[in-house]
Every structure is written in structure tokens, then in C-alpha cells.
């Protein structure tokens, strides 16, 4: 069976290259084996996906191996996009980094745009998981916001999907194939938490909302810029803490800044590090960024 072999890639792909991914997936159409030609692979992949999960004995194992392959490819894509940029990263080097053939990559992703989209969705999933974990700790919205900026600083170093998502957004701005904009989603989370802090009475009542939102959003975006300079993580962490030491007194009522921790969260409440390779999550619509609302 095709499922018994580990993804092969030939110069004239007929769409049978599903390897561990579909169990069958035979198809017609030819391709040259070059990066830009994936017609045969794409048709075979579509048939394979349709039949995946309907195989008999061993079908579940095939599906699990397929998911592992996909996760490896998303992780490898994040590494290459982060290191080399979207334009310079090639599908051949991404497949090699993942330890699979380019045929296996084409089974899961028909193009580099599709893989870049999956990387950004992975970054969104990790961001929302971290906020959810911090909410579960019972912290206030403003403390969650502080801790989320520390999470970003850490994972700009530890999880390639995060810096890769920022880089893809910058380099591919305006491309219709990339529906996800990680930069906007990051801002949406920041501004959403700030709105919650305002509604919870954590912010100065006399503050002008547009100015507060602009200041915090600019500071939150600056963390990625600082990390991109290559400064050591310990220095980046100190700078994030220093940022909040100046911001909090201007955001909260006089003396209330002492109620907040500006450094890294305690290990018991911090969201876990994400150095492992996990599956991507579905993209959820983000809140509007820079609402400017005073309600």
C-alpha cells in the first residue's frame, strides 16, 4: 500500500505521492517536480484527503502520521520564513528541514502561500492559548496584558512561528492569498485586554482613551522590533519590565501601580513554553484594532 512508504517524490509526479498521508490518493495529471508545478500532486492530494479516514485496518495510524508530518512542515516553514524571509525560503529547503520529501510537502500544502498561512494560524493559536492560560490563573485584565507582553518577548526567541508570523505579515502585506495578518491580531489582543482593563476600572477615569490605546499599542509593537535587533533575551526581558515601570503609573490611578507585577509571571501562572511542535488551530476573527471608542 502507498501508506506503508514514507513520502516519495519523483520528477513526474502522477498524484500518487501521498506516502503516510492518505493511504491511497492516486490521481492523474503530471508535474515536472519543480517547485512551481504541483498540479498532479494537488489532484492526488485532494483524492487522498477525500479517502483519508475511510481506510480500514491501520487508517487511524495513517492519519496520525499524516498529522505529525503536517506539524513538522509547519514548524520547518516557520523556521525558514523566520531565518530567510518569505521570498528567500524555498519549499525544497523547508521539506529538507522537516525531514520529508517535497512530494510530502505538496500533499499538505499546494503552495508557499498556503504554508505561510498555516504558519500564521499557528502563531495565532499560540497567542490565544497563552491569553486563555493567563485568564485561567485569575489575573486581572491589565496584569494579563503585562504578562502577555512578556510571553511575546520569550516566544520571539523560543517559538519560530511567532517571529515568522510577524515577518510574513510585513513582507507579504496586501497579498490576497494570505488572509491572516498576525500583526493586526497581536494588536487586537493587546487592545482588547486594554479595553477589559478600562471596563474593570483598572485605568485612570480621566484618561483620554485614544491616547492611552495608541501609547500601549505602540509599546507592544515595539517589543518585536527590539527582539529583531538580536539583543539577548535577558536584556529584552529587562526592557519589557522597564517599559511597564513607566507605563503603569500613567495608566492606573495614583499608587495603584504597586498592585501589579511588571516582571515575568511566576512559573505556576505563566503559560507554558511552546518549544514543542503541535498542530495548528483554526483562525478566529479578531477584535477591531484601534477602535477609538470611548464607550
SSE order and pairing:
Layout: H1 39-51, H2 59-84, H3 91-98, H4 102-108, H5 112-136, H6 141-158, H7 161-171, H8 182-199, H9 209-228, H10 233-251
Protein architecture, described:
Helix content is 56%, strand content 0%. The protein contains ten helices and no strands. Helix 2 packs across helix 5 (112-136) and helix 2 packs across helix 7 (161-171). The chain is an all-alpha fold and 295 residues long.
Terminal-residue CA separation: 62 Å
Q: Indicate the mean pLDDT.
A: 78
Radius of gyration: 22 Å
Order of helices and strands: HHHHHHHHHH
Tell me the number of strands.
0
Largest sheet: none
The helix/strand class is mainly alpha
Taken as a percent bin, the fraction of beta residues is: under 5%
Helices, by number, come to 10
The proportion of residues forming helix, as a percent range, comes to 55-70%
Low-confidence runs (pLDDT<50, min 5 residues)? 1-56, 272-295
Shape: elongated
Amino acid at each position: 500500500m502507498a501508506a506503508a512508504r514514507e513520502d516519495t517524490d519523483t520528477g513526474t509526479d502522477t498524484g500518487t505521492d501521498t506516502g503516510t498521508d492518505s493511504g491511497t490518493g492516486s490521481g492523474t495529471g503530471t508535474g515536472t517536480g519543480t517547485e512551481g508545478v504541483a498540479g498532479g500532486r494537488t489532484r492526488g492530494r485532494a483524492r487522498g484527503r477525500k479517502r483519508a479516514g475511510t481506510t480500514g485496518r491501520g487508517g487511524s495510524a495513517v492519519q496520525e502520521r499524516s498529522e505529525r508530518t503536517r506539524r513538522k512542515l509547519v514548524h520547518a516553514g516557520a523556521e525558514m520564513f523566520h531565518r530567510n524571509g518569505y521570498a528567500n525560503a524555498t519549499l525544497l529547503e523547508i521539506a529538507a528541514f522537516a525531514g520529508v520529501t517535497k512530494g510530502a510537502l505538496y500533499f499538505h500544502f499546494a503552495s508557499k502561500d498556503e504554508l505561510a498561512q498555516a504558519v500564521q494560524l499557528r502563531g495565532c493559536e499560540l497567542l490565544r492559548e497563552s491569553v486563555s492560560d493567563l485568564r485561567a490563573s485569575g489575573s486581572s485584565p491589565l496584569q494579563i496584558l503585562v504578562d502577555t507582553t512578556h510571553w511575546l518577548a520569550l516566544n520571539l526567541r523560543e517559538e519560530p512561528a511567532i517571529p515568522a508570523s510577524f515577518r510574513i505579515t510585513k513582507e507579504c502585506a496586501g497579498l490576497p492569498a494570505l488572509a491572516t495578518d498576525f500583526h493586526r491580531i497581536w494588536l487586537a489582543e493587546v487592545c482588547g485586554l486594554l479595553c477589559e482593563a478600562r471596563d474593570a476600572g483598572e485605568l485612570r477615569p480621566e484618561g483620554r482613551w485614544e491616547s492611552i490605546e495608541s501609547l500601549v499599542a505602540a509599546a507592544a509593537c515595539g517589543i518585536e522590533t527590539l527582539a529583531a535587533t538580536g539583543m539577548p533575551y535577558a536584556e529584552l526581558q529587562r526592557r519589557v519590565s522597564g517599559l511597564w515601570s513607566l507605563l503603569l503609573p500613567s495608566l492606573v490611578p495614583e499608587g495603584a501601580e504597586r498592585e501589579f507585577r511588571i516582571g515575568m509571571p511566576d512559573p505556576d501562572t505563566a503559560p507554558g513554553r511552546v518549544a514543542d511542535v503541535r498542530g495548528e488551530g483554526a483562525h478566529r476573527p479578531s477584535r477591531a484594532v484601534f477602535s477609538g471608542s470611548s464607550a
